[in-house]
Each structure stands twice: as C-alpha cells, then as structure tokens.
Amino acid sequence: MEEIEVRELKKVKLENPVMIEGLPGVGNVGKLVAEHLIQELNAEKIVEIYSWHFPPQVLVNNDGTVRLCKNEVFAWKSKTKQQDLLIVSGDEQSVTNEGHYFITETLLDLAQKYKVSRIFTLGGYGIGQLVEKQSVLGAANEIRLVEEMKKYGVEFREEEPGGSIVGASGLLLGLGRLRGIPAMCLLGLTSGYLVDPKSAQAVLKVLCQALNLEIGMQALKDRAEEMEKVIERLKEMEKAQIPRHREEELGYIR
Amino acid sequence: MEEIEVRELKKVKLENPVMIEGLPGVGNVGKLVAEHLIQELNAEKIVEIYSWHFPPQVLVNNDGTVRLCKNEVFAWKSKTKQQDLLIVSGDEQSVTNEGHYFITETLLDLAQKYKVSRIFTLGGYGIGQLVEKQSVLGAANEIRLVEEMKKYGVEFREEEPGGSIVGASGLLLGLGRLRGIPAMCLLGLTSGYLVDPKSAQAVLKVLCQALNLEIGMQALKDRAEEMEKVIERLKEMEKAQIPRHREEELGYIR
Amino acid sequence: MEEIEVRELKKVKLENPVMIEGLPGVGNVGKLVAEHLIQELNAEKIVEIYSWHFPPQVLVNNDGTVRLCKNEVFAWKSKTKQQDLLIVSGDEQSVTNEGHYFITETLLDLAQKYKVSRIFTLGGYGIGQLVEKQSVLGAANEIRLVEEMKKYGVEFREEEPGGSIVGASGLLLGLGRLRGIPAMCLLGLTSGYLVDPKSAQAVLKVLCQALNLEIGMQALKDRAEEMEKVIERLKEMEKAQIPRHREEELGYIR
Amino acid sequence: MEEIEVRELKKVKLENPVMIEGLPGVGNVGKLVAEHLIQELNAEKIVEIYSWHFPPQVLVNNDGTVRLCKNEVFAWKSKTKQQDLLIVSGDEQSVTNEGHYFITETLLDLAQKYKVSRIFTLGGYGIGQLVEKQSVLGAANEIRLVEEMKKYGVEFREEEPGGSIVGASGLLLGLGRLRGIPAMCLLGLTSGYLVDPKSAQAVLKVLCQALNLEIGMQALKDRAEEMEKVIERLKEMEKAQIPRHREEELGYIR
After folding, report:
1. Domain C4-216 carries which CATH code?
2. Which helix (H) or strand (E) holds D99?
3. How many CB pairs under 8 A join A and C?
4. Looking at the complex, does the CB of residue C57 fall below 8 Å from at least one CB of chain A?
C-alpha cells in the first residue's frame, strides 16, 4: 500500500460539481449529513482512499466481515440543470499530523480533477453543554462567501468557532485557498458529548438552501428522536441525583 | 538496519500452507496459542523480522543474554496430507501507526511467497470483567468464511467485537482482502486484565477444528490452572473488602 | 504542499539587517513583542512559511474568513543609517519534534540570504507564580554577546533559565552557532499562566536599547492594564476563598 | 542539518579500544559514570553527534552561552599496554522511536571504525524505593560474557532487570549482536527518583575491575554524600508526617 492510495472505482462525468465533505468529528455532525445525503440521493461510490495515516485497525461490519479504515467519495448527477455533487465521507480521519495535510491535498486533487466550483465542509462545534437553540456557525476562505452564507441563516460570531477548525473541514478551506478553490464550512452547534442528528438536521437545512436542493429529512428526524430519549433519560438520572461520573456514563454515546 | 529487515534463516518448501498469526495483544491470547502451537508441533523458525517500528529496547532472557524485539515466522510440515503451517509470533507489535501497516504488508508478502491458502489471526476480546462462559468471536474478510466459521462454534454478534480489531490481527484481514487472500480472525473472550490461557484454549479448540489438527492442550491447561489460583485470590481479596485500586493490584498480571 | 513551503511575497534589499524572532510560547511574550514591532514600524510582510509540521487546522479571523497556520517574516527598512530589521512571527510553532529543527533551518536560510548580522530571539520564562519584579533573562551563542547584553540590564543567573530553551527561540541560537551566526535570546520573566504584555514591555525595552531603536509602547501598556484588571479579579477571588481549580479558571487566559 | 550529523573533531589512533556508553537514563547512573571517567582520565572529545531526534531545544551553560543537545564521544589512550577507551556520553537520548535505533547504529559504526573489541553500556535499574544494599545487575549479548561478568560480582537474576533495557544501553547490545560485537550492560540498582552517584560508584567499581583500570572515586563520593543529606531530609519529613505528594516533592532531584 502506498502512503495514500486512491482507488478509482468508476469514472463519471459531472457538470458543475460541488464537493461536500462530512468526515467523522465533533458530534459526528458532518458524517451524519454526508451519509444522509448519500443515502437519500442514492449517490454512487467512485473513489476509495486508503492510507497508513488512518488508525491501524479494521472495522467489523454487522455481517461479520471487515473493512479497512478509508475515506470515500460518492458522485451524484442531478436530473435538473442543478449542480452535480461529489460527497466525501469515511470511517476515520488521519491519526498523524502530516496525514491530515496529505489527505486533504488528495481531496483537493480530486476536486480539481472534477473541476468543482466550490467546497462545503461540514462539522460540529462543541459547546460543552446541551444545546438549547440549534444554530449553524460558518467560516469561509473568501469574504464574499461569508456574505453569501449569512443569507442562509449561517451565524458568524466574532469569538466563535473559537479560533480554529481542526482536520479536513478546516484544511480544505485553508489549503483550498492556496489553490484558489472557494470553500466554506458549516458547523452545527452541538454538546460534543453525543452523536447529534438534530444538529445534523440544522446543517443539512442550510446546505439544501445554499445548493437549492430538496432532501427528505425523515431518517435524521427518527435518529434525532432516539437521541432525545437518551438525553431525557440522562436528565432524569441527573435530577434523581444518581451519582455518576460524566465521562463514564454520558461518555460519547453513538 | 533497514526500516523492516526480513532475515530468512532457512528455506523450506511448504504444501498448501495456512498462516496463523498470534502476536501480543489483549490477554495475550493470540501469542499464547501461537507459542503453544510452535512448541507442540516443534515448528522450525524460518524468518526473523526486525524493525525500528518496534520499541527501542532489548528483552532480557533468563540466562542474562538479550534479544532485540522482533517478529518471527515458524514453519511446520504436516506428516499426513493435511495443510502445512506458517506460524507468526513475536515479542511486540509496532509502536508507530504506519509500522502496523508496514509489518502487516511484510507478513502478507511472506504469505504470498509461500502461497498460503488462508490466514487465521488470533487475539483476545476484552470485556472488562471476568469471563463467565468462554466463547470465541469471529470476523473475516469474505462472507463465505463467516458462514464456515459458524460451523466451528465461532460466534458472530452484531454489536461485537465492538467495531474494530486493532493491529496485525485486524490489518491482515483488511490488507489481505486488497490482495485477495482469504483471512479470518478468532477472538477469545477475556477480561483484558490478565494473561488468559483459558481463553487461549477456547481459541485453540476452534482453530484445531478448522484445520483438522490434533494438538495436546496440557501446557495451556496447566497455565490456566495457575491463573485460576491467582483469580481466586483476587476474588477473596475483593470479598474481604481489602481496599485496593484495580489498576494497581489487578493490573496486568503475566 | 511541500514539507516546508516558503512563499516569497516580495523581494526587498536590506542593509545590515538584524533578525528578530517572536513566535508563540510561554506567556506569548515573544509574539507580543514581534507583533508590536510589526505594527509600530509598519513593517512589510515579505515571506510566508507553510508546513505540515504545523497543527492540522485553520484559524478563524474575526470577519469569518480563515487562514492556514503559518510563520511570517516582515521587513523594515530604517530611515536613518541604523540596521534594517527582519521580524519573524506566526500563528504556531511546529507540533512535531523534527519540524522544530526544519523550520529553524528555514529561518536560518533566510537569515543567511539577507546576510543578517545577528539574531535576537524573544520569549517568556515561566516561574509558576505572579511576577513581582519584571526582569529579562538572557542566553547567547557566543560569550561576547553575553557580556554585551549585561550592559542592557539583561540578567544571567547560573541556575536559570532552568537548563533549556525550547523551540525556535532556542534552536536559532544552537543551530545558528553551527553556521556562525551570532544570536541571543531575551526571556521575560512571566507567570506562565497568562498572556503577559507587561513582560513583553520589559523585553521590548531591552531590545530597543540593544538596537538603538525608539518604539512607542502605548499599545502594550494598554493591554498590560487590561491584564492587570484580570489579575486583580483573580487575586480577589483567591482572597474570598472562592473554591476553584487553578487549571480551570486561571487556565491560560488570552 | 542531516538526520544524524556526525562531526569528527579529531582523528585518533587507538589500540584495542573498548567502548563505554553512559547516556542519561534512570538515576542518571550511566551518565554519572561516563562523565566521571572522562574527567578523571582527562579524555579527549573526538566526535559530536547532532540529530533532529534529540529534543528541539538548547541547553544553557552556566556562563550564559547555549549548546545544542548532542551526544559526544571521548577517546583515552592508555599509557600502559592496557586497552584504550572510547567513552560515549551526552545531554539527551532520542525522543523518537526510530531515533533510538538510528543513533545506536551511528555509535556502532564508530565502534566498528575504531575496531572496538567490546562495548560496556551503563545505566540504572529503578526499583521504586530507596536502595538498601548496592548491587549491579547485568545483561550481555553473548553467554560467555555473562559468565565473565559474574566473576566481577555482577548479579544475574532470573526475573530482573525486569524484561527490557530501554534506549542506547539496550540497543547497543541488541543491534551490536547483529554485527557480532560483544557487548554487556551494567545496571546499578537505584530508586529511580533521584540522581544516584552512589549507584554510579558501584557500577564504576565493577567496570574498573573488568577493565583492570584504577580510577579515583572521590568526586562521586562527594556527590553521593550530598545526595545522602537530601535523602536524610526526605526521610525526616516522612517521619514527621508532613503531608506531601511523592511526585511533587521527592520528584526527580538533580
């Protein structure tokens, strides 16, 4: 295996494509949105990316088979004259410092190969407590994109998203800028303790508006309801003063 | 020394060999089985693998001499018309992320050189408490192997082995799949706190069935009995309410 | 992107330049001084340095745009016959061990290209408690520079700065010595818990004396006053015996 | 700077040299012995080794000048017909995994260049409590060396030195064996909490016997007496039941 191995499974021709990245991260918000899109649009996998910068492990599927950690790129061809999509998701992000840079460069190579007009990166912004009011924070690598995103209800707060955006969601903007590719990041507010399909819904809404797409939300809603029940139980436990260590029991529930 | 240095000690001709990997890991289950096989079969060492991805240390033998950390491959030629064996064991696994990938690729190179028909990787699956009922969980890189292993009593649980298999036992399946080598993993349930020869016995039984091999178990049984005594003492201490920190005294007893 | 990518934005001709390095570090003392100099002198950015040894993230500007972590070099041409300046600052230092060496070598390449006569590196020396009396400790890569710096009130204590100077501020001296470039380090005493503009003032004063420069201090004074208020509040809280964990609330206030 | 930069300061011709390695480690025992030898024998520095695998910092000398972290090799020519010496000491060991291997290989290259007949590596063996009775444990890369060392009172215990010898002291034996260079390790029993000149004396005694050397011990004795006073104070504090955390106050006193 090479340091980064790009396996092209299928050649497709895309018109005016937009790249959407949703890799694992805080609250798994980005990945939830990307996977939801892939399923709802029935997007087709065209690329697998393997790398020794991913964790040295395999993941076990429900049928007992395994898969190597990888990133994947899916293509979707719009039936109307809208833009086509390249959706990036995957099992893991790099576990080494330089791997983050290399894998992002690989994604940008693909973006350039398919001549994407812009990139949306998706993630969560952890605030350390349960979110009362959903909202989506933004960042972009061109000031005109900031202005555009405000129209879709994206918030820009001077002190947030707290200085830095880590991993592919950030580097696609930073390294994309060096290549002249417009890119913006949508971060759903989330506690940071739980997988957050509700935050994913909020991000998806903004994305659909920006892309003028219509996507069914039911699957995310169902998952959000399940999580609501988990949260209710946690709150009751808290009220009942059942002694517990936050790390232990609230942990990171998937 | 090269990044990975393969020292071939002896050339052997093997018929229809199967590779069995048992490197150090949870409960040391895999290594116990591999070393037991090597001893019982009187297998012959044919390869030593050195690497700067192993810990920067030497191990001290009982006679005061030292050895570099390494992995080793042993060969065993069956006297009947059964398959021959290539058994992989060693002192340590890689301590770097990429080293896990490189060393697994090296093992797969050997597997291909000797034209192995399949690979069994062995390990433990830590459940964080003493195991009441021994069982062996499985995973494989082809669905037909999953079906085959069920016949030998291997369990496949939808939620377990908990998402991922770390290290050579996992990567041999994942990277093996990319090369088209059938591979399966046997994980003995174990507490995760103690070296577990009892779990090793359970794994060995499944392996012997799958390979149609007969192997004496006495050495593992003896070691398991010793460990039982240790566990009994720990349980009594717990009953007697002797205050202790789990990490300190239960620790990781070898 | 290359391992270290030096983007030359502008070619300048400098006379007898001195290099001043102030990258992030203890109390952010060095960076505060370097940024103050850049602003007061209206120095011009001539070089950007990107590297995958910086953290894999982007930083969010107040206007919602982002920037990659980088180091930067600014040039200032003196109007009198004094020496010109090359001022090094940036968002981050390397997060890998070898990256510290590589980036320092890159800075030394620039120093040699511009034929700098000497290098001043700036930083903080954390003493673990609030500083009662400001002072500036020194170190140098030639004994004659030690003597010279004593004239500017720089202190040399046998037991301090406690053995080692970590990062670019140290390596520019050590690696500079191998290239024969005179270099000295100014370390302002600081608590180590807070960004310390007061310590930065002390360092700047010494630097101005050594370079025979006149620089307005007001901006640093204003910021120091703000910090004084923060410290006063912390002291009151301490007196009032409000229970708190030092890490949590005193933390590292920026 | 190259990954490992060997600066040869002086060419010497040595007769039948023995290499002695004493780099920083547990109780600093090895380094204390090596530095004591260098001083007592007035050995001459012939090689400096720089590497980006050392910590990214400079060390400050008492006169205010700095030095890069490095390893050094000193030569001593015996006036009698005894063997000459190559003594290895230094500021630090590698901080990366592979660096330990590379630097050891560099030392072995030197050993071969000077045709050393054998290598002694020196270190401490931390037992986690104050040492009641000094003793020196051994390990070697040939069984005949084990036998030889027993004659000098070196102890070989089946369960100790506890499995592994980390760093250059271990790897010189392990990698040396691959090159056919006889090498043995002397480990002085030490608490592991304090620099231990008393343990260093015990190691030096064995070494002198093995090399048929006579070395004054006064400097080590003086330093050991100073440490005794520190230990006495610590014991009194313990008796007086002054509450303290071991890590905090016993720490690692130099």
Report:
1. 3.40.50.10900
2. helix D97-113
3. 81
4. yes
